[in-house]
Amino acid sequence: MTLQINLPVELEALLQSQVKSGVYSDVNDVVLDALRSFFTHETELSPQQLIMLRDDVQKRVEDIKSGKECWVDGEDFFARMEQKF
């Protein structure tokens, strides 16, 4: 499939800089990689992101159990903020 798009000069320069850096062989490769990355990140987390998320959730649960933090009811919180502001 061939698709022609018009890009702002700034984006075209960014694409060209990626090719000049040697990371990509041509502009098409840059665009393909960017699109793959965009659509993959929409639906999936990387293994590193999953580990970070798991660790953060575990820490928050431990903090709640130890009393360092407490659960906040989201609806109650927003209702109070709407009244306040």
Alpha-carbon distance between the two ends: 52 Å
Radius of gyration: 22 Å
Count of discrete alpha- or pi-helical segments spanning 4 or more residues:
4
Are there runs of 5+ residues with pLDDT below 50, and where? none
Mean pLDDT: 88
Number of strands: 0
Structural class of the secondary structure composition? mainly alpha
3D shape = elongated
* Helical proportion, percent range: over 70%
H and E string:
HHHH
Main β-sheet, in a few words?
none
Strand residues, percent: under 5%
Which features does this protein show?
85 residues; mainly alpha
Task: Please characterize this protein's 3D structure.
This protein has helices at 9-20, 27-43, 47-66, 74-84. By secondary structure, the chain is mostly helical. The radius of gyration is 22 Å and the shape is elongated. The mean pLDDT is 88.
What is the topology?
Elements: H1 9-20, H2 27-43, H3 47-66, H4 74-84
Short account of what is shown:
71% of the residues lie in helices and 0% in strands.
